[in-house]
Design a protein that fits this description.
Blueprint lengths: L7 H21 L22 H27 L3 H25 L5 H25 L4 H43 L3 H15 L3 H9 L2 H8 L9 H11 L3 H9 L2 H10 L5 H14 L10 H6 L1 H14 L3 H17 L1 H9 L2 H9 L8 H14 L5 H7 L2 H8 L9 H21 L3 H9 L2 H10 L8 H17 L6 H8 L3 H8 L8
């Protein structure tokens, strides 16, 4: 499950509340210490939070139980029975706490859920009794037979636990969707969408549950009602999260979601925030990393108006975030149909994107430059692209991108910088088939920079993909200007086969320890 990265001390302080509750539950066997309605004496932590917080507490408790079960299996393999027993007792307490906490804030539970809760509690008690008997046994043969029983019981506990969590989350998703569909109240609908978004952030499995229960259908219904216009950005953001899974895509196709997105993007009466979130959904459903593409047939029917709206959003973006979302959608679209690149050329998108890159307020991160250079790289397969690059001073921009470096050292940012370097080299290699572009690149000293990237692993952050792209660009430029390279560079980086030059430039030191 997805857990937000927080300071370790803060995480310990949060978990401590659960652990102390766990110890109380261990001693009291889930019985309340009093019948007084005194908040200070209340053991159930969830009572002080709203529904969204309750779900987060439930997910955190579930994550702890899941982790503990994994650790029990590891200790069981090593025959560390004392640890196995103490951890089993702890899991038993956590399970009881989780069930009690959930039952305090849920409005209704099904009979199936009550049966699963009873099965899980009974099996946890049986599990604890098993491990306690193992501590009192010294006969190795008996221990072996008991170990297999304990292992089977552990598997059953994990199975019941997984089924219960699945049922609980499905139940909560159904409740939230029921609120969205039946409530005419703006406040209740907004609260339900917010809780649904929080659930979707917990990972692909939660998104599948929401999609299967009709989440995409319910959210697009909101996006088709003018009375909920102020909720469109939040609704679209939730849709972008859910549509990362195949089930979400199927639902989107069923309700003509792409047509709805096209209508939102082309409607000038909507706010920039709404357009930006619609672009985010487009970026999600056109991601080249997705293996399912059934929805793309209907996308092609609306592609021209979507691309036109996205280019306009890039041109008029008031912030870096809006530009990033719009350009990411355009970048993804250029991957799956060359017609998109032709439409972009007709719309003077190259000029708009190159102009945006000179505005540090708009294109302010490696992530934005990554999207821009992706579009340039994909458009560079068209012959007409070269003249656009020259007119927009694009070769200078590509040269600057070869120097892309992370300022923070953040792994995600470093990876984005590598992509910028790689794609700028790829774009140069493709465009340099045009003598005018090649000449401009040579005048801007692209060849020395490409050589440095090839020979210095630190300049390219030890990236092999950057190395291959730079070698390809260097070889293309060397054809146009053979005198621009020293003989050693030509002999090592241009003359041999590409794979031989690659191996020469790659650090080949091996460790046989």
């Amino acid at each position: 499950m997805h857990l937000i990265q927080v300071d370790s001390v803060q995480r310990w302080m949060e978990d401590l509340k659960l652990m102390t509750d766990c110890e109380c539950m261990c001693i009291l066997q889930s019985k309340p210490i009093s019948i007084e309605k005194d908040e200070q004496n209340e053991l159930i932590l969830s009572s002080q939070y709203n529904t969204c917080d309750n779900l987060q507490l439930l997910l955190k408790r579930a994550w702890i139980i899941s982790t503990e079960l994994t650790r029990i299996a590891q200790k069981l393999e090593k025959n560390r029975w004392q640890r196995v027993h103490s951890m089993t007792v702890r899991v038993n307490c956590h399970v009881r706490s989780m069930i009690n906490e959930y039952n305090t804030f849920t409005r209704s539970s099904s009979e199936e859920m009550h049966q699963l809760e009873k099965l899980l509690i009974d099996k946890c008690s049986e599990f604890t009794a098993f491990t306690e008997r193992c501590l009192q046994t010294e006969d190795e043969e008996i221990m072996k037979s008991m170990k297999s029983c304990v292992s089977e019981t552990l598997t059953t506990v994990a199975q019941y636990f997984g089924q219960l969590i699945e049922l609980v989350l499905t139940h909560e998703a159904q409740n939230l969707l029921r609120q969205i569909e039946l409530s005419g109240s703006l406040y209740i609908t907004e609260s339900a969408i917010s809780s649904l978004f929080s659930l979707a952030q917990e990972g692909a499995h939660l998104c599948r549950i929401i999609a299967k229960e009709g989440g995409v259908v319910a959210l697009f219904k909101i996006c088709r009602q003018d009375c909920f216009r102020c909720l469109y950005p939040q609704t679209l953001r939730t849709l972008a999260s859910i549509c990362c899974v195949e089930e979400g895509m199927h639902q989107l196709e069923k309700v003509d979601g792409i047509l709805c997105l096209a209508d939102i993007l082309t409607d000038n009466s909507h706010s920039e925030a709404t357009h930006a979130e619609a672009a985010a959904v487009i970026a999600q459903i056109t991601s080249p990393h997705l293996t399912f593409t059934q929805h793309l047939s209907s996308f092609l029917e609306n592609m021209e108006e979507i691309v036109t709206a996205l280019v306009k959003l890039c041109q008029e973006a008031s912030s870096g975030e809006v530009f990033l979302l719009a350009s990411a959608a355009l970048a993804n679209i250029t991957f799956f149909d060359t017609m998109a690149c032709e439409i972009l050329l007709q719309l003077n998108a190259m000029k708009i994107l190159l102009a945006a890159c000179s505005d540090k307020r708009i294109v302010d991160t490696p992530y934005s430059r990554d999207q821009v250079v992706t579009i340039l790289a994909n458009m560079s397969v068209l012959d007409q692209c070269a003249s656009e690059i020259i007119q927009g001073n694009g070769v200078q921009l590509l040269m600057e991108m070869l120097f892309e470096k992370s300022s923070s050292g953040n792994p995600a940012e470093v990876a984005a910088c590598e992509r910028v370097q790689q794609k700028s080299a790829v774009t140069l290699a493709r465009l340099s088939r045009d003598p005018e572009v090649a000449d401009a690149a040579i005048k801007l000293s692209c060849i020395p920079r490409l050589i440095k990237l090839c020979r210095s692993p630190t300049e390219r952050n030890n990236s092999d993909s950057v190395l291959v792209a730079c070698l390809a660009a260097l070889r293309r430029l060397a054809v146009m200007s053979p005198g621009g390279l020293e003989d050693s560079d030509f002999q090592q980086l241009v003359k041999p086969r590409l794979v031989d030059s690659f191996l020469l430039c790659t650090n080949m030191e091996e460790s046989f320890v």
